[in-house]
């Protein structure tokens, strides 16, 4: 071929290369060197054109298959009449300039006249890297999906829209117990038939499957029970492809243990773990059911609530194991008190309830007496024999309540009255108790608001030396005026506060306010010891001494300017602990007094041990002086006792001169009462005990009661 012809052909071939759109190059048939290369090939190889043009064909793709092809082409070039090797098409790989292996499909064909020797070879390469990566990713994804399918704890079944099974995992076969024959070859009908025959209700199962298949987009979750006793949770949801449903995925989870646990929990939620009796929740439901039945038949019923007296002492002294055995014994005894159909329950630590059907007041009373008798029989535990007693409250339907909650509340209030009445007895609910309880609740709520709104205030009653008439102290007394209730006396709200425990918060407030006022009087040049009443509950708080020390420290008040008035009951309740606490307070310099001495119980041996500074004679003994000889004898004995123990003694409630004179004659040290002044607010107290300087002499005389 002439040079112009070769150049024309080469120009045409280059145009062909550029038009292909795929990597390609042209190889000279004689020299087997690259004559032309397109831009796509250069990009694939990562080489510039000069590095490719003129290079041997076997240098670009050097696989054995390619080397053999070019050897055959080289041999054909040596034989002018040879047609050269035929086309070559296969998947292979080439190495680019960066050394990366590129997966390609390579095609080689000869170019030239059909009946003559080839003039050139066209090499076209298709880059399969992206397709290979996608294939690898698909294979990896399928592998991961299969691993996930097999590793899940759920049995998985995948079906198409027609219900044909596409896949299921081993867990599915295990849950349903599929035989081996259904695992080795696909048998959709046999698998479905096996599942249908495994469920307890095949007809309902089949109907539900039909409903699900008809609703292509339905998502559903339900439980199915098998003949084996297994309970399965079946969840199904549609499978989508390109936004359209293409099948359905079913998951099956074995809930047998969960259902069994739920049943056990339900049993535990309705019964007492120790005795096996109904618990409070289940007893309330039983009472509600009994009320519905009684209402339909115009019948009656009784609810008895009992509390074992002093059971805490058994637990504390003998241990909880013995206490549990006592409760079990008590439960057995109570069962003997009831008729068939009646119910006994343990509704609290040491509280039991009895539901008696068709019982009026006489029947309820008879049951209550049987309960008292049964519980009081001697109880022997670990060779120790002792006697139990209980307090019983009774409420009747319909007289005492129209629902279970009301009956329970009324039985509880009646039981509390039985305990307050001396224990070992029973009490019926009384209607007026409701009004009392509502009043106490209203008072309790108002008290809490009063403290938060600073409606409480302190008044101070002067305490005087009987011999000199000098004011030697002040007792802080709480006062409360409510915007709705008006003036509320301490006698009304203090018992409610003690009952609810709110007395602790009130006591802390009184202590802080009294110490604050004592510090003000000290700073004003009028040091005045202030007495503060302390309830037994407040004193028993573990941090009580720390609170006292903190308040004194906050106001930098000497302990000698604070006196704490305690009740006699504090001395006998855990005497050793009380002694330790009182000793700590005494070390702070705080003075200690026994309030209302003679009205409670106190051991003289305890009294001798405690660091008490003063005894306070209750106003009930002072009121009868001087006419009542018994009161006189008691007061005289208290004074002599105080003197023998080197204690001061003060009388409260002194209202007449004869009372003051007799107390002085008996050797009483101090007094307080209306004879001198009632409890006054802080400003009035100051004006009463310390008049202006211009009236100093008169002030001294005014402090002397004549």
TrEMBL record:
GO terms for biological process: cellular response to nitric oxide. Residues 440-693 form the EAL domain. Residues 299-431 form the GGDEF domain. Pfam families: EAL (PF00563), GGDEF (PF00990), PAS_8 (PF13188). SUPFAM superfamilies: EAL domain-like, Nucleotide cyclase, PYP-like sensor domain (PAS domain). It catalyses: 3',3'-c-di-GMP + H2O = 5'-phosphoguanylyl(3'->5')guanosine + H(+). Residues 141-203 form the PAS domain. It comes from the Bacteria. PROSITE patterns: EAL, GGDEF, PAS. NCBIfam families: GGDEF. This is Diguanylate cyclase. It comes from Pseudaquabacterium pictum.
């Amino acid at each position: 071929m002439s040079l112009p012809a070769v150049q024309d052909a080469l120009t045409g071939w280059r145009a062909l290369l550029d038009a292909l759109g795929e990597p390609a190059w042209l190889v000279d048939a004689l020299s087997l060197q690259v004559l032309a290369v397109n831009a796509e090939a250069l990009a694939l190889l990562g080489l510039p054109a000069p590095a490719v043009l003129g290079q041997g064909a076997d240098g670009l793709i050097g696989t054995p298959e390619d080397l053999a092809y070019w050897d055959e082409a080289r041999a054909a070039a040596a034989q002018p009449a040879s047609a050269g090797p035929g086309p070559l098409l296969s998947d292979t790989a080439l190495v680019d300039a960066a050394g990366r292996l590129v997966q390609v499909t390579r095609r080689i064909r000869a170019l030239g006249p059909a009946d003559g020797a080839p003039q050139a070879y066209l090499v076209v390469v298709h880059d399969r890297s992206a397709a290979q990566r996608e294939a690898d990713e698909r294979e990896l994804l399928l592998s991961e999906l299969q691993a996930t399918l097999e590793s899940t704890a759920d049995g998985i079944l995948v079906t198409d829209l027609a219900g044909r099974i596409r896949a299921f995992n081993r867990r599915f076969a295990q849950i349903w117990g599929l035989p081996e024959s259904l695992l080795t070859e696909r048998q959709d009908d046999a698998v479905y038939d096996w599942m249908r025959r495994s469920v307890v209700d095949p007809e309902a199962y089949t109907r539900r499957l039909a409903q699900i298949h008809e609703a292509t987009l339905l998502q559903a979750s339900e439980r199915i029970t098998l003949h084996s006793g297994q309970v399965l949770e079946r969840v199904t949801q549609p499978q989508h492809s390109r936004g359209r449903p293409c099948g359905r995925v079913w998951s099956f989870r074995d809930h047998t243990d969960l259902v069994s646990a739920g049943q056990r929990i339900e049993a535990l939620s309705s019964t007492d773990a120790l005795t096996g009796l109904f618990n409070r929740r289940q007893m309330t439901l039983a009472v509600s059911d009994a009320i519905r039945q009684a209402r339909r038949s115009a019948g009656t019923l009784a609810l008895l609530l009992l509390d074992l007296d002093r059971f805490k002492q058994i637990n504390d002294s003998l241990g909880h194991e013995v206490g549990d055995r006592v409760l079990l014994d008590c439960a057995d005894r109570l069962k003997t008190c009831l008729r068939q159909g009646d119910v006994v329950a343990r509704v609290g630590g040491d509280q039991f309830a009895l539901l008696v059907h068709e019982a009026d007041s006489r029947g309820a009373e008879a049951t209550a007496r049987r309960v008292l008798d049964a519980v009081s029989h001697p109880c022997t535990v670990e060779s120790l024999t002792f006697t139990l007693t209980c307090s019983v409250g009774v409420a009747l339907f319909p007289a005492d309540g129209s629902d279970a909650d009301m009956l329970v509340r009324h039985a509880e209030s009646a039981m509390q009255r039985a305990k307050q009445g001396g224990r070992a007895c029973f009490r019926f609910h009384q209607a007026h108790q409701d009004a009392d309880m509502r009043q106490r609740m209203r008072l309790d709520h108002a008290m809490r608001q009063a403290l938060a709104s600073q409606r409480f205030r302190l008044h101070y009653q002067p305490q005087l030396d009987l011999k000199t008439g000098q004011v030697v102290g002040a007792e802080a007394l709480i006062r409360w005026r409510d915007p709705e209730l008006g003036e509320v006396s301490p006698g009304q709200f203090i018992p409610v506060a003690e009952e609810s425990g709110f007395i602790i918060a009130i006591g802390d407030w009184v202590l802080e306010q009294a110490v604050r006022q004592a510090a003000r009087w000290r700073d004003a040049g009028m040091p005045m010891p202030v007495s503060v009443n302390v309830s037994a509950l407040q004193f028993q708080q573990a941090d009580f001494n720390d609170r006292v020390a903190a308040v004194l420290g906050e106001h930098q008040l000497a302990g000698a300017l604070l006196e704490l008035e305690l009740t006699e009951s504090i001395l006998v309740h855990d005497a050793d602990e009380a002694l330790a606490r009182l000793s700590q307070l005494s070390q702070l310099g705080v003075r200690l007094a026994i309030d209302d001495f003679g009205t409670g119980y106190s051991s003289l041996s305890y009294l001798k041990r405690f660091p008490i500074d003063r005894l306070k004679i209750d106003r009930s003994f002072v009121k009868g002086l001087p006419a009542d000889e018994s009161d006189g004898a008691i007061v005289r004995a208290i004074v002599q006792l105080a003197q023998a123990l080197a204690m001061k003694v003060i009388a409260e409630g002194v209202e007449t001169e004869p009372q003051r004179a007799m107390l002085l004659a008996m050797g009483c040290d101090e007094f307080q009462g209306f004879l001198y002044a009632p409890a006054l607010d802080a400003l009035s107290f100051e004006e009463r005990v310390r008049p202006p300087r211009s009236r100093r002499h008169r002030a001294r005389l005014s402090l002397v009661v004549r």
